[in-house]
Amino acid sequence: MSNISKHYAMNKALPEHKRNQVIQSWYEPALRTLSKILAVKEANLRKINRDIKNAAVSRDEFIDALLNDHRTLRHDHASEIITSLYRAGKIRFLGRFIQVNEQGGEV
């Protein structure tokens, strides 16, 4: 079970500050996963002589990667983590695509 799942299982109504702490504990692993996917996308763009700044990951692809890398994570928790990363300014959305925010926090 993930940190979030454990806490939900124990107490469905976590205090807001505790819930935020649990979600924020996933920032680093999620950003690591995103950086790994973006590295592949950048390599693909380099091969075809395109600008690597255009590398982006679809939200669904990012969720799938999070679920594969962190098997204890649930789909709704992954979505919550992504939304929280956006609110914290760590990532940015380009339509349905996601990039690491330049100012935000690369891992």
Topology pattern, helix = H, strand = E: HHHEHHEE
- Sequence of strands across the biggest β-sheet: 1-3-2
Poorly predicted parts: none
What percent of residues are in strands? 5-15%
The CATH topology assignment is Arc Repressor Mutant, subunit A
| Helical stretch tally | 5
DSSP summary, beta strand count: 3
Terminal CA distance reads 24 Å
Using the coordinates above, name the CATH class: Mainly Alpha
Strand count, sense and closure of the main sheet?
3 strands, antiparallel
Average pLDDT value? 87
Please identify the structural class as seen in this structure.
mainly alpha
CATH architecture: Orthogonal Bundle
Radius of gyration: 15 Å
Helix content: 55-70%
User: Looking at the structure, what is the overall shape?
Assistant: elongated
Topology of helices and strands:
Blueprint: H1 3-10, H2 16-24, H3 27-47, E1 57-58, H4 59-69, H5 75-87, E2 91-94, E3 97-100
Antiparallel strand pairs: 1-3, 2-3
Helix pairs in contact: 3-4, 4-5
Description of the molecule:
The protein has 107 residues and is mainly α. Helix content is 58%, strand content 9%. The protein has helices at residues 3-10, 16-24, 27-47, 59-69, 75-87; strands spanning 57-58, 91-94, 97-100. A three-stranded antiparallel beta sheet has the order 1-3-2. Helix 4 (59-69) packs across helix 5. The longest helix has 21 residues, at 27-47. It is elongated and about 50 Å long. The two termini are 24 Å apart.
